[in-house]
Amino acid sequence: DSVLTIEQNAFDGCKELTSIAIPASVAVIGENIFGGVMNSRQSSIGPCPKLKNIVVDKGNKMFDSRDNCNAIIESATDTLLFGCQATVIPDSVKAIGPYAFDTCATITSIHIPFGVNSIGEGAFRACSKLESAEVPDNVATIGAGAFAFCENLKNVKLPTKLVEIPSSLFVGCKLLTAISIPETVTAIGPTAFAECKNLTSLNIPEQVTKIEMGIFRNCTSLRELTLPEGLKQINKEAFWNAGIERIDIPKKTTAIGLLAFNSCEQLKTVTIKGAIKQLDSTFRCCNVLETVIFN
User: Fold this and answer.
1) Could you read off the pLDDT of 26-58 as tens digits, one per residue?
2) Cα-flanking dihedrals φ and ψ of residue 248, to 5°?
3) In this structure, how many other beta carbons lie within 10 angstroms of the beta carbon of residue 210?
């Protein structure tokens, strides 16, 4: 009970670690104590792949593992800081911290209680066997890359009142085929769906006014996409190597970034309804592009 602080990455790479008990004396826990974030972003095994049992001493005043949840929770804020493959998130948890389940490669599904109102950056990043995720409606914010590189993720339900899709949220989710974006969403961050190579269906809410950099990069199965009428800007590399066959650029769109549609090898027809100020290598290497219509 003499340990006061557990520093960042303290147990990184401890591949045989199965159980850990946090003593009552611990008052400070650093970031990513089980590692993961510094590993390859597409790692197929976790830094502590065998960890199943996490217990915090009941005398600890800063942290707890309530309800035998096999996790470390910050008591004052009800934030789950670190979990493992055996974690059951308690109903009393209000937030899931950054990288809480990063690279937990054995998780196939996760139940997020209704009381959770925020999910931190990279919370479920590289959970390579995670197949489904239902984010409850009470969640107001989701951090960047929260589900990035979940290579087996197939089904996702987002909160009905979500306002922003953060950057890289689903980057590298190769088996994700469709997703319904709530109509309340007003912004979608850069590379949000990049490398989703099986994505075939997606809606962009009418309130979205900007397509950020690399959002649909290498979405090679995305054949068709309707852009919102109020869209003002398409940033660089937004559709790099996407599978779209035709695209209608709305009337209010006045700016298209560098290489926005670069290497769209299935793109045949483009209709530009508004007054675009400049096209700079916009359709470079679109080898089958047959028709461009300016209205």
Assistant:
1) 999 998 888 765 444 444 345 688 899 999 999
2) -110, 115
3) 17
